[in-house]
Amino acid sequence: MGATGPGNCSICQQAISWSQLFTFTAKGPLHFDCFRKQAPSDPATQGVLQALEGELRLIVAYKGLLGKVQNPEEKALLEGFEKDAERHAARLTKMADRAPK
Ligand SMILES: [Zn+2]
């Protein structure tokens, strides 16, 4: 991972910045928006994508909070929450990626 972002999007080939929502597949990092655009439109896949967007936003929120919170116990808790959200996001990405095209 570079300083400016996680790398180039495996769909649109443009650089991804840390301020954008992104996830990872076997092909590498990719913008959430690019992933959503090429996903099938069935309700199950769209529902998974909606849940994934929520988890990705939570990761951004926890990362932001970690820069503000001073209490070590709260920091440790928030780090755990962020890891949970990352695990959920990874599983949801796999689910959406595996959906029939
Ligand atoms: Zn992209």
Structure description:
The structure is a single chain. The chain has one domain (7-98). The longest helix is centred in the C-terminal third of the chain and has 27 residues, at 72-98. By secondary structure, the chain is mostly helical. Strand 3 and strand 4 (28-31) form a beta hairpin. The chain is built from three helices and four strands, in the order E-E-E-E-H-H-H. The chain is 56% helix and 12% strand.
Gist of the model:
The chain has helices spanning 32-37, 43-66, 72-98, and strands at 7-8, 15-16, 22-25, 28-31.
Strand tally is: 4
Bound molecules: zinc ion
Q: Helical content, roughly?
A: 55-70%
N- and C-termini, Cα separation: 30 Å
The chain-level structural class is: mainly alpha
Strand content: 5-15%
Q: For the residues shown, what is the average pLDDT?
A: 93
Query: How many structurally independent domains?
Result: 1
Fill in the keyword field for this structure:
3 helices, two-stranded antiparallel ribbon, binds zinc ion, 101 residues, 56% helix, mainly alpha, two-stranded antiparallel sheet, 4 strands
